[in-house]
Amino acid sequence: MSEQVMALPRKRVGVPLAQTTWFRVLRYTLVRGITLFITVIIGVYLTVLIANMGGYVDEIRKGEIRENVAIQVMNDPALRALSPDAKRQLIEERVRIEERRLGLDQPFLIRSVRFLENALTLRLGFAQLMNSNSGSRQVRLILLERLPATLLLMGVSNLLIFFLSLFLALILSRQYGSFWDRVFVVLSPTSSAPGWFYGLFLILIFAAWLRILPFGDLVDAPPPENPLLYALSVAKHLVLPVSALVISSIFLSVYSWRTFFLIYSSEDYVELAKAKGLSGRAIERRYILRPTLPTIVTNFLLTVISLWTGAPILETVFNWPGLGRALYQAVGLFDVPVIVGSTVIFAYLLAITVFLLDIIYAILDPRVRVGA
């Protein structure tokens, strides 16, 4: 008897289960947070290097500074009496002062590290060439000024695509092989074309030919003073870009979700629920939607953070004053602070979303244990 008692596994004494669980969760949270922050650092620093083209943009700016200073010196009437050597020395001195003011006298490696530090702490500084509508060159103001337009466009279109895709996919999963199911399967390859491609055709048809919708921009010029008329004007300008984004994504999205729901609807527990006589809606809610909820939440959160990115080419085609168009202009002008500012904000949003998803998975799916 005593040997049998000694053979039993010993319980851990003095360490409550709650403390063990909290320690495991805390350790996982710290490790995961540090890992994501390191990922953000690497991504932002690569953006700094690419946006500066390894320091080549600095050389372009130095050339522009020298050219501007030379033009100022040569066109200054007070300096015409100076000898060519004196003018050359004056140009070199002014160029040196301007480069020191902009920090271009330091090696690119040092400047890139300093740029990285400022970006990670959201000290975005000033744009080199771009201005806000108020004339300010603060990157923060430039991005905040364009943020509402992007949130409006991407929010309406992406959320419409997401919820409409789920609704249609559930219907098609119940009507596998029907006419409309085959239509969506056939049209799914049309989503390989980007939204701006369809936007060009929509502009030609509804703006240039039929003349029932505007070519682009956010609101009529001049903007209506009445708030209701202003909102109606914005809604009218919103029709074409939203339609272009929806057309470019809806068929593939519906096809993907429909296939996903079909896979889960063929599970044994779904067949058992049908045999028990449960209604179709109850089966969808309990046995199809609930197991797929982590995937649905993941897609929804990634859709939400994609609202901040904008659509650079589409916003340019429709002259939409959003973040995407600002990023497109910044790339064309080699305006590094604006490029890095847009990237670092999106990187932080993505890292926070991925971190929260791990916690949400553990809440939604009992099979997942945080830090296990």
Commentary on this structure:
- With 372 residues, this protein is mainly α.
- The protein folds into 2 domains: 35-120, no CATH class; 139-333, MetI-like fold.
- It has 15 helices and no strands.
- The longest helix has 39 residues, at 227-265.
- It is globular, with a radius of gyration of 29 Å.
Whole-number mean pLDDT? 83
Number of helices: 15
- The string of secondary-structure elements, in order, is HHHHHHHHHHHHHHH
| N/C terminus separation | 36 Å
CATH class identity of the largest domain: Mainly Alpha
- The rough form would be described as globular
Oligomer: single chain
Largest sheet entry: none
Strand percentage, roughly?
under 5%
**Class from secondary-structure proportions:** mainly alpha
| Radius of gyration, in angstroms, nearest whole number | 29 Å
- The assigned CATH architecture of the largest domain is Orthogonal Bundle
Q: List segments where confidence is low: pLDDT < 50 over at least 5 consecutive residues.
A: 1-12
Total beta strands: 0
CATH topology of the largest domain: MetI-like fold
Into which percent range does the helicity of residues fall? over 70%
**Tally of domains:** 2
